Amino acid sequence: MRVLVTGGAGFIGSNFVHQTVRERPEVRVTVLDALTYAGDRESLAPVADKVTLVEGSITDAALVDSLVADSDLVVHFAAESHNDNSLNDPSPFVQTNLIGTFTLLEAVRKHGVRFHHISTDEVYGDLELDDPAKFTPDTPYNPSSPYSSTKAGSDLLVRAWVRSFGVQATISNCSNNYGPYQHIEKFIPRQITNLIDGVRPKLYGAGENVRDWIHVEDHNSAVWAIIERGRIGETYLIGADGEKNNLEVVETLLEIFGLAKDDFEHVKDRPGHDLRYAIDATKLRDELGWTPKYTDFESGLRATVDWYKANEAWWRPAKQATEAKYAAQGQ
Ligand code: NAD
Ligand code: TDX
Question: Looking at the DSSP assignment, which residues form a beta bridge with residue 174?
Fold first, then answer.
């Protein structure tokens, strides 16, 4: 099987490539990645001899057409992925998340190639802290940020290409991922690398916002379950019942580093900050028999801390510029 992985040099995409090489030796992997600030060739270094990396954009129709023509399956991770960046400059989010997805859809339509679209729970907006409800595939779309609205738009493009053109596609909407190779602009690796540097973690607002954490390996095993057993045209929500508020996450990290629970700073809140995400993954579990393996968040977090300690050469080059950008925003 020939698989084209877009965004395979990013956080979740590179972990997907590692998992695929490890567990599915029959799969031939090609990665298409623009190597933006968020993509890193080094994230594929351990599998470099088993994977072809093509540097280019999913908005380049001729390049996309030639790569899709030579594939049996496209797994589409490439995106501009950071909410805070989308508030400063939405333009690349519209280009990559909307135009890029459109470009891929046109190519898979032309060549009759199976497509799996990776999306986020943020398309559903947010929930109240005390709401017993979780997101389900029937929850209405209600995105808050330029990031989540472009992801919502990309999901709707996929649905329309399935219905109007018979494209063979599935969609997954996952909750917040953590694990190795995550860019240090994101919440957990930002705090881990701050703590390694002896800097106090930075909590937006009061820290009451809830995210539903899942280990990246569990996200990717669910993606394979959907590729292999999912029904065409369906949307599957991926989550592992990992709700935690941001304050709890920071306190757990402080404990892992042997520091006092209150040794952090409150910084300026994110405008339009979604309050709570929570996933009901019943459909994925019941229909496809998927279960997560990393159910102990604290031990998953400890392993992630160890990974960042052991891989300073991977993240160090981005640290200063990332923190300078946050400092300019009062965060
Ligand atoms: P990331 O920012 O770490 O990686 C994105 C990758 O896409 C990078 O390698 C980047 O170079 C590449 N890219 C960006 N623009 C491109 C373009 N125009 N052409 C080709 N490549 C391009 O993101 P991530 O956290 O790994 O997220 C991957 C996908 O998963 C995204 O679609 C995101 O919306 C979705 N998702 C992420 C999370 C999460 O918690 N991180 C949760 C749910 C869904
Ligand atoms: O320094 C910080 N302090 C802080 O309190 C940062 C960077 C974030 N936060 C808060 C904001 C959020 O409530 O932590 C939470 C998580 O923030 P992010 O890591 O930026 O993730 P989020 O905005 O929840 O979006 C993530 O999950 C859904 C991914 O970045 C998206 O790509 C995915 O779709």
Answer: 120, 238
81 Cα to the center of ligand 2, angstroms: 10
CATH code linked to domain 184-211+244-268+276-322: 3.90.25.10
Structure confidence by residue, pLDDT tens digits, 256-296: 999 999 999 999 999 999 999 999 999 999 999 999 999 99
Query: 94-151, pLDDT tens digit by residue?
Result: 999 999 999 999 999 999 999 999 999 999 999 999 999 999 999 999 999 999 999 9
Q: State which of 15, 135, 176 you would mutate to test the pocket of ligand 2, scoring each by most atoms of that ligand within 8 A of its C-beta.
A: 176
The predicted model scores a pTM of 0.99
Which of 6, 11, 57 has most ligand 1 atoms within 8 Å of its beta carbon, as the pocket-test mutant? 11
d(CA 256, CA 330): 27
- The pair of three-digit structure tokens given for residue 276, joined into one six-digit string: 């709570």
CATH code that applies to domain 2-177+213-238: 3.40.50.720
Catalytic residues: 121-122, 147
User: Domain map of the chain by residue range?
Assistant: 2-177+213-238, 184-211+244-268+276-322
Measured in whole angstroms, how far is the alpha carbon of residue 155 from the centre of its chain? 15
